[in-house]
Amino acid sequence: MTSLSGHDTIASLLTLGPLRTGSHKMANKKPPRPQDAALDDEALLDALALLPAEAARDPKRDRIAGQRLNLTRLRYFVAVAEDLHFGRAAQRLGISQPPLSLHIKALEEEIGVDLFTRVNRKVFLTASGRILHQQAARLLDHVQRVDHIMQGVGAGEYGELFVGCVPSAMYDILPKIMRHFRGLHPKVHLVLKEGHTMDITDEVVEGRLDIGLVWRNVSDPSLGIQPILREQFSAIVPADHRLAKKKTLSLRDLASESLILPPRKVSPYHYDHIIAAFAKQGLNPRIEYEVPTILSQIGFVASGFGVAISPSVARRFATDGVAVIPFAEEMPPVILSLVWNKERDSNAGEQFREAVKGLYRSDS
Predict the structure, then answer these.
(1) 292 and 246 part of one domain
(2) Beta pairing partners, 337
(3) Positive or negative CA dihedral for 288, 289, 293, 298?
(4) Are residues 124 and 259 in the same domain?
(5) I need a labelling partner for 124 at 20 to 30 A (CA). Which of 27, 56, 139, 150 fits?
(6) What is the CATH number of the domain that holds 296?
(7) Could you tell me which residues are beta bridge partners of residue 325?
(8) What is the bridge-based pairing of β-strands 188-194 and 159-165?
(9) Contact 236, 301 (CB under 8 A)
(10) At how many degrees (to 10) do helices 86-93 and 97-111 cross?
């Protein structure tokens, strides 16, 4: 039996499609078992038409037309069709002329038409040969491109990368990363999703996202983490607030203020660090509103609903209606990190992380 390479398998699947396609109702029925001596080629063809797709790899299929249109014979045919000379084509293919002639003859017998005519020792394509030459050249070109693309996918140069990002990094941090990454790997398509830290992390764990850009240090052992940006907490106060003119603030300054924080279920990293910082000083903050994003918090503060505590990245979104003021006392840093599922990592994901290292130094 002829052994098929991966390319030959592709061609077999493309050209034998009708042999694999039976009625949907027949797909679950037990197919008739061909008897080698009892069935001629036509009967065997009818029997195989009822087989499910998995049966396309059955070795008995090789008895039908001797593996119709495998890629090796198509390459041989195209070489002869281009040179119109068996000797030159054989030399170009790196084989001797007799095997090449046998392959062309076998191909003609398999498809049941003459592909070449020979007149006065000159070789010409028949009408059928011209049609096959056109189609075979396209097929071989397509297979070559598929092979190139799949090699690129394996190397991380092609494909899709699903990236999740917290809203506060969508404005300038992620676009900066994307611009740098696309300059290095223009054929990797980035599919973006905006979400909160917990949602993005969950989707990375479950494999629905390849990489997440989140505010947290990750303790899940299944996740890799690459810190990229360290920020400090700052206070956001209304521009006309009595504290707005101060250069620094303390947590004690905010203890009596109506506090706006993100919900813990959305940003447990922020929430827990802020509450712990108040508790360390024996303070009990007045949490009046839970607002999920930094942009929304700025809007609430500007409208006079209270003050917020947020990563200093809030300065990038601040309006004239608010003041963003650092804290005088030491606060735990806020770390923006890339996270990924170590068991589902890919070359494209690794290259994305390497591209980020070119922009931000990891700081653990």
Answers:
(1) yes
(2) 214, 227
(3) negative
(4) no
(5) 139
(6) 3.40.190.10
(7) 235
(8) parallel
(9) yes
(10) 110
Residue numbers of the domain that contains 25: 17-63
**258-261 and 307-311 strand pairing:** parallel
Looking at 155, 173, 192, which one is the last position of a domain? 155
Same domain, 201 and 219: yes
Based on the fold, state whether residues 260 and 142 are members of the same structural domain.
Answer: no
What string of pLDDT tens digits covers the 364 residues of the chain? Answer: 334 344 443 344 333 333 333 333 333 444 443 333 333 444 433 433 433 333 333 444 444 444 456 888 888 999 999 989 998 989 988 999 898 899 999 998 888 899 999 888 888 999 999 999 988 888 887 777 666 666 656 555 667 889 999 998 988 899 999 999 999 888 888 999 999 998 999 999 998 999 999 987 667 888 999 999 888 999 999 999 999 999 999 999 999 999 999 998 888 888 998 999 999 999 999 999 999 889 999 999 999 999 999 998 888 888 899 999 999 988 888 899 999 999 988 888 999 999 999 888 644 4
Quick one: tokens of 223? 């996740």
Our count of domains for the chain comes to: 4
Residues 6+ apart with CB under 8 A from 299: none
| 0.70 surpassed by pTM | no
Instruction: Answer yes or no: do 253 and 276 share one domain.
Output: yes
Please check whether residues 84 and 206 belong to one and the same domain: no
In 3D space, the residue among 265, 232, 209, 262 whose CA is nearest the CA of residue 335 turns out to be: 232
